[in-house]
Amino acid sequence: MAWEWRLIQNECTGCGICADVCPHEAISMPREAAYPEPGPSFCIGCMACVKQCPFDAIEVKQLTALPAE
Ligand code: SF4
Ligand code: SF4
User: Fold this and answer.
1) How many domains does the chain divide into?
2) Which residue among 19, 34, 41, 67 is least enclosed by CB atoms within 10 Å?
3) Which sign, positive or negative, has the C-alpha torsion 48, 37, 15, 58?
4) Is 44 in the pocket of ligand 2 (CB under 6 A)?
5) Ligand 1 pocket, 55 CB below 6 A?
6) What is the reported pLDDT for 1?
7) Hey, whose CA ends up nearest to atom 2 of ligand 1?
8) Domain membership of residue 11 as a residue range
9) Nearest to 37 by CA among 51, 27, 23
10) Is 10 a member of any domain?
11) Are 7 and 20 in contact (CB under 8 A)?
């Protein structure tokens, strides 16, 4: 099952909490960056970032499988 996080950029303050709480290194917050970026690993849909973001600036959704041909 694949998951994807998405930033709501106009709500994000770049605080980096999401990157700190992500247990799977799916989000990184480079020191020089204004916003979080994709990390070295993939999202497992744990929702920790969604729960901990103080600004409701991150969404996580499950990717739907492409229809088989
Ligand atoms: S916790 Fe929320 S506000 Fe902070 S960097 Fe992550 S998405 Fe942006
Ligand atoms: S849902 Fe979990 S694994 Fe995915 S980006 Fe958020 S904290 Fe990381």
Assistant:
1) 1
2) 67
3) negative
4) yes
5) yes
6) 79
7) 53
8) 3-62
9) 27
10) yes
11) no
The gap from C-alpha 54 to its chain's centroid, in whole angstroms, comes to: 14
Share of the chain above pLDDT 90, in %: 90
Q: What residue owns the CA closest to ligand 2's atom 8?
A: 22
Separation of CA 18 and ligand 2 centre (Å): 8
**CATH classification at residue 34:** 3.30.70.20
- The protein residue with its alpha carbon nearest to ligand 2, atom 2, reads 46
| Residue 31 maps to a domain | yes
Whose CA is closest to 29, among 40, 21, 41, 19? Answer: 19
pLDDT in tens, 21-52: 999 999 999 999 999 999 999 999 999 999 99
Distance 7 CA to ligand 1 centre (A): 8
Residue 68 forms part of a structural domain: no
